[in-house]
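Example 9 (inverse folding). The structure is encoded as follows.
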């Protein structure tokens, strides 16, 4: 079984929030204050009851109706899976809400004011006149609030049996964890439990040279140690006053004792041995490595508490909650750690389900799309859960898109899942120059948390499915609602017309914008490429994805930039040779357009083979000569303003840019 969903009502940032979970690994991502920690806390209230403090006044959602005593309600649904055991079914037998396969069971946590106290609350509420007074009234009544966990349909209000709740074990590592103080020595509960459990698992049955087991040898030496200490103590001096006070009348005091294995376990401590054999205390080890060591101890504990040795006390369903596992971890360690967790939870080696919150692109790149759950806020501030994996149908086409996205969702491209807005571009030139051009028109990509992602023009179609473009209406609810701008080259082309003697397949060939309709008898023309046309068709009615390209006289990014800045010294240095191509000479364009085209085509020819290097040089010149006027092409300006919410359709939000 697994936790398949959760509904949270009136708790912190959630007024009424529903989220679905994956069997196994769940990775929660989202901006700050998107509710990631709140989800972890909600799970703790049901599955980790000991040590979790009761809600305070600040845990109630600020939009809650105070006219009636407000309640915090958290409902989780448990669903059957292929790996269910008889113990799983026994746990949920009285919590079932759906008997058909897959069966479902529910647990509901409620924090509420008992009914007998409602009248006094209403009487006091009638005397209040401001919101501040009403919140003060709620705080005054908190001491009367109680928390209960119900099993099954909440209408029946049947308390969940504690003996079955205890079969579900939950461990939580918060973002500000102090792991070092929790694992240094055997005096710590966790380490001591593990040492006691795994003691003698290997050598207990191995006889020593004299025929005794290791445990028997320990007992022999323990007796000798105790005897040695007793003989070394001057008991007469220590206990001399017992006789003087008359206490010895009841018997003469003496020293005795025994040394138990558990006493020795308490003095054992963790150390680190480097490759040269040098030993250092674990407190001198790096915080990141100590975090990993501590998590490994937790996983060992899961193995221990689910073992048959515990009999009826064994746990059945271990859950691990980790906030920001990237804390203190090198990116490579983040990636490897999450790959390990993904594989282990798949095999159910130690934990049945893991929940992780993160801001790390290295972690999301390690797990693929399926475990990822994105928390997004709409314009009103309401939070929704989005599921990138679920936008893809089971069809071959969608699965191919999913595989492509997962293959390229590395630590850099996965930044598009975290950003407020996304710009997809074709080449390195756009990647280097767009942030500089954005500054020229007052669009700070950093401030507005815009992720700038380079992909091939033919693969735009795969990525925009994540945001709802080309997705069926039933799957729209799973798509991310970020604004996505696809800045793509027009790439006009021509196709030679066939005649009766022609043979073989004809292909579209790239051409200059000024060639369009120049020779209609021999060629067909198109002003935009097939890739642009298909993107426009795929976008259809998707409101948060827009396709930006130069609709007239457009070709490539370099050509379009030079067209609008054909007399700019920033672009046209002495190295750029101005030439007039033959096709332009035959064009019937107006003189000014022909002049622009001559410079634009010359700049494109100059850039050929060195677009990235040229873009870097141009970006430096623009930043060093800010007084020099440069025009941002209209379609690029509109794209930048749109993703930064400067198009009069929204207000920009602060954040951090990811440039990929």
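The amino acid assigned to each position is listed next.
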């Amino acid at each position: 079984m697994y936790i398949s969903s959760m509904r949270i009502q009136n708790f912190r940032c959630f007024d009424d929030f529903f989220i679905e979970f994956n069997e196994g690994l769940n990775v929660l991502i989202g901006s700050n204050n998107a509710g990631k920690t709140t989800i972890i806390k909600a799970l703790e209230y049901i599955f980790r009851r000991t040590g979790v403090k009761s809600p305070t006044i600040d845990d109630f959602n600020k939009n809650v109706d105070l006219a009636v005593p407000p309640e915090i309600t958290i409902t989780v649904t448990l669903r059957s899976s292929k790996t269910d055991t008889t113990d799983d079914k026994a746990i949920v037998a009285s919590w079932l809400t759906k008997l058909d396969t897959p069966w479902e069971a529910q647990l509901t946590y409620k924090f509420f004011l008992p009914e007998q106290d409602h009248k006094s609350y209403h009487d006091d509420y009638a005397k209040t006149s401001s919101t501040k007074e009403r919140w003060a009234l709620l705080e005054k009544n908190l001491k009367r609030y109680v928390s209960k966990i119900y099993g099954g349909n909440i209408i029946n209000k049947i308390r969940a049996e504690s003996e079955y709740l205890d079969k579900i074990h939950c461990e939580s590592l918060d973002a500000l964890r102090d792991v070092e103080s929790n694992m240094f020595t055997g005096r710590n509960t966790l380490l001591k439990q593990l040492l006691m459990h795994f003691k003698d698992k290997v050598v207990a049955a191995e006889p020593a040279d004299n025929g005794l087991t290791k445990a028997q040898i320990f007992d022999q030496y323990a007796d000798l140690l105790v005897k040695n200490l007793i003989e070394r103590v001057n008991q007469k001096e220590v206990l001399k006053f017992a006789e003087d006070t008359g206490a010895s009348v009841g018997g003469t005091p003496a020293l005795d004792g025994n040394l138990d294995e558990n006493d020795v376990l308490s003095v054992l401590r963790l150390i680190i041995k480097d490759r040269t054999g040098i030993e250092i205390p674990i407190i001198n080890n790096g915080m990141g490595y100590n975090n990993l060591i501590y998590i490994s101890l937790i996983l060992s504990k899961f193995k221990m508490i689910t073992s048959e040795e515990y009999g009826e006390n064994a746990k059945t369903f271990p859950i691990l909650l980790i906030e920001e596992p990237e804390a203190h971890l090198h990116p490579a360690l983040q990636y490897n750690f999450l790959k390990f967790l993904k594989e282990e939870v798949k095999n159910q080696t130690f934990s049945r389900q893991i929940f992780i919150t993160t801001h790390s692109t290295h972690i999301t790149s390690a797990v693929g799309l399926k475990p990822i759950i994105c928390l997004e806020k709409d314009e009103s501030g309401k939070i929704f859960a989005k599921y990138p994996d679920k936008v893809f149908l089971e069809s071959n086409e969608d699965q191919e898109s999913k595989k492509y996205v997962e293959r390229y969702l590395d630590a850099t491209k996965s930044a598009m899942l975290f950003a407020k807005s996304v710009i997809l571009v074709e080449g390195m030139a756009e990647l280097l120059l767009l942030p500089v051009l954005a500054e020229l028109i007052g669009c700070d990509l950093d401030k507005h948390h815009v992720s700038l992602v380079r992909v091939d023009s033919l693969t735009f179609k795969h990525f925009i499915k994540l945001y709802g473009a080309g997705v069926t209406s039933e799957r729209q609810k799973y798509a991310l609602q970020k604004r996505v701008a696809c800045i793509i080259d027009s790439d006009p082309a021509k196709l030679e017309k066939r005649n009766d003697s022609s043979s073989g397949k004809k292909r579209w060939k790239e051409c200059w914008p000024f060639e369009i309709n120049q020779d209609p008898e021999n060629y067909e023309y198109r002003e935009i490429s097939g890739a642009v046309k298909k993107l426009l068709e795929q976008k259809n009615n998707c409101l948060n994805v827009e396709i930006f390209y130069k609709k007239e006289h457009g070709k490539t990014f370099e050509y379009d930039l030079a067209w609008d800045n054909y007399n700019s010294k920033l672009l046209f240095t002495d190295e750029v040779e101005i030439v007039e191509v033959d096709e332009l000479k035959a064009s019937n364009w107006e003189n000014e357009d022909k002049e622009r085209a001559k410079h634009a085509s010359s700049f494109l020819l100059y850039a050929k083979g060195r677009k990235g290097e040229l873009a870097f040089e141009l970006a430096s010149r623009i930043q060093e000569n800010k007084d020099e006027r440069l025009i941002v092409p209209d379609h690029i300006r509109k794209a930048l303003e749109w993703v930064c919410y400067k198009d009069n359709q929204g207000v920009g939000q602060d954040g951090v840019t990811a440039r990929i």
